[in-house]
Design goal:
mainly alpha, Farnesyl Diphosphate Synthase
């Protein structure tokens, strides 16, 4: 079920030019390394989940598609959708590599000319992948699917303007932040493409609205569970993991919501946030950790419940196992 062969041509076009950025600190280099070396977490997770969801749901009794069109229990259009979803995700990662040139230090980051080239690469390469994805989307000949996936692309764009990051894309904690902001940011930036990809896969097989909503719920809650679990790690692991800390992680937002933004400000430097280590200590001493653990279990249960309504099969079991792996890795 690997999607790497489907993306090899597009990614090789990008990688060919990225070599020119070696020796600089342009973020596109890190993104490119991630595309080549998956490490522990595969960049193809979204496509894989869509394929498993398609196989778990099976054909619909109202589908005009013939059972003979399926390969391994999956329609060709659903396989195309999995590829399209991965291309959109990769394009978004590459677009995030654009840097603010006015904040660069050539001595540390590399020559401005090279960084400008990196920005052009990030924009053009991301656009190249996105254009290919949109062409593939149109070839599915399903206006409902086009609308669903287009709205997911819109959500990825909106995620950049939610107020939880500054002009350079760095995490920023607003004074009035609340847990609903975390859920919105997580859904827009991570959950929407997965949830709507699963929903669109059900549409391609002509499943009912109820089945589409179950697929959507799985993708949404899977994302919340995994992101909440990831956000918890700097607070439940030894201090050497504090470098993974993010000011807009769920535990911090939960803590601020309960205690106010001022508790994170240094009295000696009014308005300046205290050190990451001190914030971690504050959160660890509160009830927030247990609240977040409870939410991980709640999201995991919701995702499992959604997919458990599909017929028993290996694909359904794999989807359940993926949720469990996402919160216990």
């Amino acid at each position: 079920m690997s999607l790497r062969c489907l993306l090899s041509d597009e990614l090789s076009n990008v990688a060919m030019h990225v070599r020119k950025l070696v020796g600089t600190r342009h973020p596109l280099l890190k993104t490119a390394r991630g595309l080549v070396y998956d490490g522990k977490y595969s960049l193809q997770t979204r496509g894989l989940i869509i394929l498993l969801m398609s196989k778990a749901a099976g054909p619909s009794s109202q589908s005009h598609l013939a059972m003979a069109d399926q390969i391994g229990g999956i329609y060709p259009s659903q396989r195309s959708l999995a590829e399209i979803t991965e291309m959109i995700h990769t394009a978004n990662l590459i677009h995030k590599g654009v840097v603010n040139l006015s904040d660069l230090d050539p001595a540390l980051d590399g020559p401005v000319k090279d960084m400008e080239f990196g920005n052009k690469m990030a924009v053009l390469s991301g656009d190249f992948l996105l254009a290919n994805a949109c062409t593939g989307l149109a070839e599915l000949n399903n206006t409902e699917v086009v609308e669903i996936i287009s709205s997911a692309i819109g959500d990825l764009m909106e995620a950049e303007f939610t107020g939880l990051q500054d002009n350079n894309g760095d995490a920023l904690l607003p004074d009035t932040v609340c847990f609903a902001d975390w859920k919105k940011q997580t859904f827009l930036s991570l959950g929407s493409l997965l949830a709507k990809g699963c929903q669109a896969a059900m549409e391609l097989a002509s499943h009912s609205e109820d089945i589409k909503q179950l697929a959507f719920a799985y993708g949404e809650n899977m994302t919340y569970a995994h992101q909440m679990y990831a956000d918890l790690q700097p607070f439940v692991k030894p201090d050497k993991h504090i470098e993974q800390f993010c000011i807009t992680s769920a535990p911090v937002i939960k803590y601020v919501e309960a205690n106010g933004r001022s508790v994170l400000e240094d009295d000696r430097k009014q308005g300046h946030t205290v050190s990451s280590k001190k914030i971690v200590q504050y959160v660890r001493a509160s009830q927030v950790i247990e609240e977040c653990r409870s939410l991980v279990h709640e999201f995991e249960t919701s995702a499992t419940r959604a997919v458990s309504q599909f017929p028993m099969c290996e694909a359904r079991t794999a989807l359940v196992n993926m949720v469990q792996a996402a919160v216990r890795s």
